[in-house]
Amino acid sequence: MTREDKGKTHLVSKGMFPSIDKLKNELLICWNKRTEPDWKEYVLGYFAHIYADIRWTETIYADFEKKISR
After folding, report:
1. pLDDT by residue for the chain (70 residues), tens digit each?
2. Distances from the Cα of 9 to the Cαs of 13, 23, 59, 63, 70, in angstroms?
3. 22, 26, 50, 63: most buried by Cβ count inside 10 Å?
4. What would the DSSP string read from start to end of 43-58?
5. In a 10 Å sphere around its CB, with 0-12 CB exposed, 13-18 middle and 19+ buried, how is residue 18 labelled?
């Protein structure tokens, strides 16, 4: 798996994570594709993972980058 592949699976466009609104819209599209409970759990987990990566990058990793660039 390459960085580009990870970008695709995390809905990255032009080097940027999706906005929260875009993430919600994509979640709803996937959510409504199927009705099985296992599918719903998978979709929630998948999008929770993307959201966690966005928040980690914007907070913890951003702080780390600031500290090492001094």
Report:
1. 787 877 888 889 888 899 999 999 999 999 999 999 999 999 999 999 999 999 998 888 777 777 788 7
2. 11, 12, 21, 25, 33
3. 50
4. HHHHHHHHHHHHHHII
5. middle
- Residues 33 and 7: their CA atoms lie apart, in Å, by 22
- Indicate the SS3 state at residue 12: coil
**DSSP code for 38:** H
**Structure confidence at residue 60 (pLDDT):** 80
Q: What is the distance between the alpha carbons of residues 64 and 47, in angstroms, rounded to a whole number?
A: 24
